[in-house]
Every structure is written in C-alpha cells, then in structure tokens.
Design brief:
19 strands; 470 residues; eight-stranded parallel β-sheet; Alpha-Beta Plaits; Rossmann fold; alpha/beta
Amino acid sequence: MTETAPTPLSAFTDLPLSPALLQGIDALDYSRMTPVQAQSLPAILEGRDVIAQAPTGSGKTAAFGLGLLHRLDMDRSETQAIVLCPTRELADQVARQLRKLAVGLANLKVSLLSGGLPLAPQLASLEHAPHVVVGTPGRVQELVRKQALALRAVRTLVLDEADRMLDMGFEEAIRDIVGRTPKTRQTLLFSATFAEPIRAIAEAMLREPVEVSVDAEASAPRVEEVFYEVEPGRKTQLLAALLLEYRPESCVVFCNMRRDADEVAGSLQHYGFSALALHGDMEQRDRDEVLVRFSNRSCRVLVASDVAARGLDVEDLAAVINFELPTDPDVYVHRIGRTARAGKGGLALSLCAPREMARAEQLQGRRAEQGDTRPLQWRKAAPIGGRPSNAPAAAMATLRIDAGRTDKLRPGDILGALTGEAGLKADMIGKIDVFPTRSYVAVARAQADRAVERLRAGKIKGRRFRVSRI
C-alpha cells in the first residue's frame, strides 16, 4: 500500500534540517528544492519509506543524501547508512556528493566500496566502521560475507537507480544485502521507471511507502531535441559535421555497443576532434583518466556506452548526441537528461538510420502517452567530405603527477607549485583531482608543456615527482 506525497514545500529552510546540513546546502549553492526533493524530503525526514520515480539530473542524490545524513548518530562508530548503486562511477559520484552535503558534520566517514577496484584498500577502510557506505551490490555483498562490513546498525538503506541494478542482474545480491539489515530500517528506492520488477522489489522491501513521481515536464529542463536521418555508412561523417556546426564545449556521444565507442572515438580523433572512448572493457585507471580529462575540459567529446556513462558527473554538459537511438525510450530520456541540468538550456541530437525509424516512432508514441504531443523535430545536414581544418580544440590539457593521497598530496600543494615555481597564473589552472597514488591537474592548453617542464625541474611540497602530459 503506497501513499501519495502531499503538496510539497519549496525552500530547504522549510525543512527540519540541522544547521550542519543547512551549511552543506549553502556550500553547494542550492537555493530552492527541485520537484523530487520537495515531494520526497518531508516524508524522508519523518522516517517514512519512499519509492520515487525520478530521471537523471533531477536532484535525487541530495534528496536521499540529506535524509540519511539527518538520521546519523555521529557518536556511534557504526555503519548506519548503505547506498547501493548500479556502477562504480555513480557510486563515486554519490559518495562525493554526500561528502559535500556533510561539510558541516565533523568526522563523518564515508567509504566507497565498488567492484572492479582492488579489494585490499576497501578492506582497510572498514577496519574502523564508516558511518556511510556507498557501493555496488556485488562488492558490498562480498564484504558482508567476509564479515568485514557489519549491517546490524543500518538505519537507512538507499537503492539508487534501482531499475538499472535489476537490468544488470543485481537482484539476488540486493535481496541478500537487504535481508541482513534490521527490519526497522528506513528504505528509500529511486528509479527512473516503475516497471513491474521495481514494484515487486518495493512490495518486498518497503513498508507502507510514500510514492513520489516526478513527470518529465516538471523535472526535465529545456532540451532542444533534433533528429537527423542518415545512411548507416555515413553516420560518423554526419556526427563530425554536427560537431562542427554546433561546436559544443562538452558533448557525450552515446553508442549502443562498446566496440562502436572505440571506433567512433578513433574516427573523431582522425578528423581532429579531442575525443575519448569510455566503456566497460577498459581498466579502471584508464576509465578514471578518461573521466578526469572530460570533466576538466581537456577533452570536448566523450563517446560512451550507456552503462559506462552512469554516474558521469559533468557540470554544464552542452550537448548529448545519440549515435544510435536506444531500443528503450526510457534510455533515451536518461541520455538527454544529462544536458540542460539545473534549469539551463541543453541540446540533444540524434542520428537515425532508416532501420531506426521504428524506434523514433516508438519514442513519439511514448511521449504521447505522457501527454507530450509535440512532433519530433527533423532537420537535414550534409556529412563532411574530408578532414576538416577547423575542429575545435579543448581549452585545457591534463598533467598527471605520480603521487596522491598516500603521499599526503593535496590540491593546494599542486596549485601552490604551479603558481609558485612553475610561474602560472591562477586563471590558467583548472580542476585538480587527487587519487590515492596519482593526481591530475588541468592547465590552459597553451601552457601545458611549460608547466610540465617547470614542475619536473622544481618540487611539489618539497619533493620531486614524475610529471607527464596525457
């Protein structure tokens, strides 16, 4: 039995949040709640179970994040909240968002437990129980079975993008994990769809949940959607032509197959574009470097499979291009939801071969079911005929430093070295990412070689480290 959420509030200050959590909201510069936050947070803060339908970019992480942080007892050194995510990229994004929201909570420990990464560091992080665990179901289940992670004190369990976790075959692991948590826990389930498998999971795991559903009209910012019909053999040439025409500062090109991501990225590189591929067959370090380079503006085009792009955290993504239309209209909505976040305008382009017309018609039909009667917007464009001379370059370049958190290196140390011994102005330096054994910094492309030379000749925090441009 579900209960519909009441009329929502609009300001975070209307909620019974502690000053510490309001400090995190201020630090993230949140002003008013998004629809999913406004509809779900009152019930979440009351301790109710919630099942929420909300698309990518709707603000759901802050909704469940504030809820689970609100229920923490910081005097207890036990794991009190678990967030399960379908991919390690999304888990990493959620963990970082939680840390930002919890800036006012002293000594909060959040552990990231994801598959595809070495087990030993994750085991070490559990020697002292974290307050919050964010992870993928398989790895969390593994660590629970090894008795490295105790779930007896869990107060809040979050299933984030539950539909994707079921699609990826995690149902058995999820049921096992949930069965090991206290029956008195609060369970929050977020999904892009309320398909029958989601309903079944909710019925089994949630107690009299409040149901929240944010429709596309309320949650989706303004996205200009344009479709182009093209012969299959000329898709790459048309893709290049559209990148030249629109010249997006940052763009994700979605492919349905992993092998296509490599081929399309390679073709774009041949045409002179700064493009990189991202898919599940890559080693984790390579995936990390691709995501770093795209998010710090060292790469303008990311060619990705759907699963690999889950959890992609890039502010102000200018455009999304469907190299192929997905077979599921809901996946299309997920894809285009990555542009035009926070109410800003965005662009979604789709390349449609003749055999994909049925998918376009299906998409139109799904829109009509949801009350959106707008026709699909079709345009024509000519594929390029050769290698262009005006492919836009990325604004930044990435330097890799072979040292990280284990070397006690901090972003401020890197910034100080670049503005000090290297002689760069602060406005030439972009995003800095510090990992356990490596660090990455974006610098203005024209200054990259000079920065590498100066850093190799000088020191960072009084020590010399290997520095390279990637």
